Amino acid sequence: MLHGLADAAKGAELCRTIEEAQRVRAWFSNADLRTRSAAEQLCDDATQRIGECDILVNNAVVRHAAAVEAFDPTAWDDAMAVNLSAAFHLTRLALPGMKRRGWGRIVNMSSIYGLIGATNRVAYVTTKTALIGLTRAVALETAGAGITCNAVCPGTIETPVHAEAIAAMREREGLSRSEAERRFLASKQPTGRFIGAEGVAALVAFLCGPDAADISGAAFPVDGGWSVS
Length: 229
Hints:
alpha/beta, Rossmann fold, four-stranded parallel beta sheet, two-stranded parallel ribbon, 6 strands, 49% helix
């Protein structure tokens, strides 16, 4: 079951890609996880289509930028609902079935900003830090139940916004792609390059597999050394 805010056509295209590559059935939901009822409906839909949840990856996020005193209270509530409460609700809904079956995997997508602070990102830093706390609490409550709960903390992964910034920098200053990346990430990843989404996905897949049965309650940085620099 895939979730995102893409339209139905894009969701169907993603499902076809996965079905052809993995030879499984896939469904897409664009439920707005700002509300508890939407999270409950998403869980119900998934259960009807594929059965109770064995693996849950909480990755929904919104971002808002402003200094604390200028931060829109509505934007704060929005971030709390999507970044944190949605993960809590989906986890609480998935856990009873996992406990009955004696097996489950939960991965919460935190961030480098769950490990360090930053200016003008108060809601993002707060929610990503809180996700690590949620991870630890769930890990302790499910210890010995065949269930693990971990957090992954990526650094800066290239997004369309970042790609536009890199392209503008290259055109403005006549830089190579690698040099533009190094300058853009100069105060962030010591490696000087974007974090590969494929590597983050591979870590999530590992945490959901049998070899990670004894890993629970951990927060894994994937940040090119940023959190230790």
